């Protein structure tokens, strides 16, 4: 193709879409005005209807600047692992300034701490005390959900928030135990070890799994592999979280009904069978107390949801319920209402000596650590980004992974289990007016005071109130509106959502998570192996070619098949591309035969949406060209992006097509093709 080559184009009749009837002439005139194609001057095209002349200038497809292999590799790796260019701030800085910037990068507290003021402290103090009132009862409750001693939940609400306040970049994230990670850890470890028969071994496995979760999380952040967490799509997470929330709630029937001998299985059928099989163990005093406090907690949640300014009502309701139920339990001293019992007083004891990296349970702890690590990372980063977007600041996902990972590794050595950013506590933290991560320090200080001086007060706290708190906390994870939206927008996403939901509900939490990951990967593979391809036509009055399905006014150009490829071309989809083009060609030839139009003599592939191509894709294009050449049909490519054009010219495919088969745009490809004499 020659630069500045100009083509005099005559307008011609084009095929109107089925529903346009008498507007075909107008569409043809609009196409002519756009000068999309031309008939050769010596011999007019078969269907010339006007003699309006226009000049279409042909442009050469340019190649990007040549790069050495090393430079190209460095740029590609930088795009994959450092899309945010974290080292940009260090450019053109003195050594002293770089040291300060490095400290601020790895320890964000140095960045906002220098500008901290008493006004910010007042806001953080109120927010910290508010979330402490929620964190203390939730910490005790979630520890029991993980089949751990209640005191472990308080330990996990003390050390991790302090570490996160030093390393975390979110101002609003409130750190502590969360329900889903607690449930997954409890269910996975309990399958191998009974927390009742072997409590010490179970505790060792929990701490070791927490350590592996931290290693996994910190490694993802350090190696800049945070995109791996994105394999859990929002649709599958919606289903998984909803199913897990129902399972968690059903598990609390043990506490709400006062059942002593309860199933260790997590499936819906097993839980309900156990509930009715043990009906003789139901205690009416426990049922009355549990139902009453559950109703109060749900009511306060509803009040705060309708009026966000009253957030303090739902935030303080759990601790208030614990205090009132403890007083009632102390007064009644009924043996039918089980209580927490004695909790040890004091700060976190070291637990590094309890970590075990050998024996038959190592594989179990690694698997549990990775599962809980993925879930806690997904929740923590999603919550952090949500509130960061509300307050108009950025959260570095990889730095957050490192912060959460280091927090869990250190926590495993201080009698803590898996922690992350909790949505419920973070929402309360934001509503209470927190300004910085100091609110986490205030919360940890309140927990410390509780550990040192207030533990005897929890002796008579009923277990039933912990069950009511858990149900109230997890019920918000059931997103019915979100599932309905998925059904309306994307049926495949809805199918993925329901598959994960039913997998958790009817089989197990682990199976539900496996289904969620599997469906997410399947959806990615489906999109990669079956890319979207469309037949394009000319939009009247423009030089733009668009999908004839999306733009019903778009008209096909006689003798041309214009196909848009809307995906990268890889080994996984290259043969599909060939098959799909040949199917389009068959359909268009049948259409042309029925309407007595000229047969297809040129196939134009619009490559503008093809972001990348590999050697298999190049071979597929070459193979498609050979097949079409045998049928005397020309194959041309329009608007290849820089990286695609570079690979083509660096391979034999570039020579196969030649510069006369690569065009700047679809319009120029059609115009040049129309000027060639028909065979």
Automatic annotation (TrEMBL):
<feature type="transmembrane region" description="Helical">
    <location>
        <begin position="235"/>
        <end position="262"/>
    </location>
</feature>
<protein>
    <recommendedName>
        <fullName>STAS domain-containing protein</fullName>
    </recommendedName>
</protein>
<dbReference type="InterPro" id="IPR018045">
    <property type="entry name" value="S04_transporter_CS"/>
</dbReference>
<keyword id="KW-0812">Transmembrane</keyword>
<keyword id="KW-0813">Transport</keyword>
<dbReference type="InterPro" id="IPR002645">
    <property type="entry name" value="STAS_dom"/>
</dbReference>
<dbReference type="InterPro" id="IPR011547">
    <property type="entry name" value="SLC26A/SulP_dom"/>
</dbReference>
<dbReference type="Pfam" id="PF00916">
    <property type="entry name" value="Sulfate_transp"/>
</dbReference>
<feature type="domain" description="STAS">
    <location>
        <begin position="550"/>
        <end position="673"/>
    </location>
</feature>
<feature type="transmembrane region" description="Helical">
    <location>
        <begin position="282"/>
        <end position="299"/>
    </location>
</feature>
<feature type="transmembrane region" description="Helical">
    <location>
        <begin position="557"/>
        <end position="578"/>
    </location>
</feature>
<dbReference type="InterPro" id="IPR001902">
    <property type="entry name" value="SLC26A/SulP_fam"/>
</dbReference>
<keyword id="KW-0472">Membrane</keyword>
<dbReference type="InterPro" id="IPR036513">
    <property type="entry name" value="STAS_dom_sf"/>
</dbReference>
<feature type="transmembrane region" description="Helical">
    <location>
        <begin position="311"/>
        <end position="332"/>
    </location>
</feature>
<feature type="transmembrane region" description="Helical">
    <location>
        <begin position="494"/>
        <end position="522"/>
    </location>
</feature>
<feature type="transmembrane region" description="Helical">
    <location>
        <begin position="464"/>
        <end position="482"/>
    </location>
</feature>
<feature type="transmembrane region" description="Helical">
    <location>
        <begin position="437"/>
        <end position="458"/>
    </location>
</feature>
<dbReference type="Pfam" id="PF01740">
    <property type="entry name" value="STAS"/>
</dbReference>
<keyword id="KW-1133">Transmembrane helix</keyword>
<dbReference type="GO" id="GO:0016020">
    <property type="term" value="C:membrane"/>
</dbReference>
<feature type="transmembrane region" description="Helical">
    <location>
        <begin position="352"/>
        <end position="377"/>
    </location>
</feature>
<feature type="transmembrane region" description="Helical">
    <location>
        <begin position="201"/>
        <end position="223"/>
    </location>
</feature>
<feature type="transmembrane region" description="Helical">
    <location>
        <begin position="148"/>
        <end position="166"/>
    </location>
</feature>
């Amino acid at each position: 193709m020659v630069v500045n080559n100009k083509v005099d184009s005559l307008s011609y009749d084009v095929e109107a879409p089925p529903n346009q009837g008498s507007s075909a002439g107008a569409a043809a005139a609009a196409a002519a005005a756009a000068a999309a194609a031309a008939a050769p001057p010596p011999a007019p095209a078969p269907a010339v209807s006007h003699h309006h002349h226009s000049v279409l200038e042909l442009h050469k497809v340019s190649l990007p600047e040549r790069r050495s292999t090393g430079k190209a590799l460095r740029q590609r790796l930088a795009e994959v692992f450092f899309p945010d260019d974290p080292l940009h701030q260090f450019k053109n800085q003195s050594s002293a300034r770089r040291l300060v910037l490095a400290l601020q990068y790895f320890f964000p507290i140095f960045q906002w701490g220098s500008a901290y003021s008493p006004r910010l402290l007042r806001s953080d103090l109120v927010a910290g005390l508010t979330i402490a009132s929620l964190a203390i009862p939730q910490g005790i409750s979630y520890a029991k959900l993980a089949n751990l001693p209640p005191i472990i939940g308080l330990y996990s609400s003390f050390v991790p928030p302090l570490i996160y306040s030093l390393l975390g970049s979110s101002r609003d994230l409130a750190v502590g135990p969360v329900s889903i990670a607690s449930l997954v850890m409890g269910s996975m470890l309990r399958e191998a070890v009974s927390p009742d028969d072997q409590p010490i071994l179970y505790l060792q496995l929990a701490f070791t799994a927490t350590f592996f979760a931290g290693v996994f999380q910190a490694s993802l952040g350090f190696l800049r592999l945070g995109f791996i967490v994105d394999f859990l799509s929002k649709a599958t997470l919606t289903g998984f979280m909803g199913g897990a929330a129902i399972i968690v709630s059903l598990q609390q029937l043990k506490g709400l009904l006062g059942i002593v001998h309860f199933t260790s299985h997590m499936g819906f059928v097993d839980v309900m069978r156990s509930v009715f099989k043990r009906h003789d163990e139901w205690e009416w005093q426990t049922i009355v107390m549990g139902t009453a406090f559950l109703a109060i907690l749900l009511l306060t949640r509803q009040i705060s949801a309708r009026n966000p300014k009253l957030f303090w009502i739902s935030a303080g309701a759990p601790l208030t319920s614990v205090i009132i139920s403890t007083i009632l339990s102390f007064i009644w001293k009924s043996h039918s209402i089980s209580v927490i019992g004695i909790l040890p007083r004091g700060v976190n004891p070291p637990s590094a000596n309890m970590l075990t990296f050998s024996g038959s349970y190592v594989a179990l702890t690694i698997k549990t650590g990775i599962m809980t690590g993925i879930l806690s990372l997904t929740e923590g980063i999603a919550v952090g980004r949500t509130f960061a977007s509300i307050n108009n600041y950025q959260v570095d996902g990889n730095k957050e992974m490192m912060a959460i990972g280091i927090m869990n590794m250190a926590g495993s050595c201080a009698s803590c289990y898996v922690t992350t950013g909790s949505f419920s506590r973070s929402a309360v933290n934001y509503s209470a007016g927190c300004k910085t991560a100091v609110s986490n320090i205030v919360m940890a200080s309140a927990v410390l005071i509780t550990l040192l001086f207030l533990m005897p007060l929890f002796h008579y706290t009923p277990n039933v109130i912990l069950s009511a708190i858990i149900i109230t906390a997890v019920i918000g994870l059931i997103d019915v509106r979100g599932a309905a939206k998925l059904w309306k927008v994307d049926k495949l996403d809805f199918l993925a959502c329901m598959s994960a939901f039913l997998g958790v509900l009817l089989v197990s939490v682990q199976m539900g998570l496996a289904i969620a990951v599997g469906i997410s990967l399947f959806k990615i593979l489906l999109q990669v192996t079956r890319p979207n391809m469309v037949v394009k036509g000319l939009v009247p009055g423009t030089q733009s070619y668009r999908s004839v399905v999306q733009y019903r006014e778009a008209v096909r150009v006689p003798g041309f098949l214009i196909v848009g490829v809307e995906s990268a071309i890889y080994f996984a989809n290259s043969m599909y591309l060939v098959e799909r083009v040949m199917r389009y060609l068959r359909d268009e030839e049948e259409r042309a035969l029925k309407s007595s139009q000229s047969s297809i003599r040129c196939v134009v592939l619009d490559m503008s949406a093809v972001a990348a191509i590999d050697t298999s894709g190049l071979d597929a294009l070459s193979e498609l060209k050979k097949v079409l050449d045998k049928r005397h049909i020309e194959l041309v490519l329009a608007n290849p992006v820089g990286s695609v054009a570079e690979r083509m010219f660096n391979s034999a495919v570039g020579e196969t097509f030649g510069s006369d088969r690569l065009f700047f745009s679809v319009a120029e490809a059609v115009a040049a093709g129309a000027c060639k004499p028909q065979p």
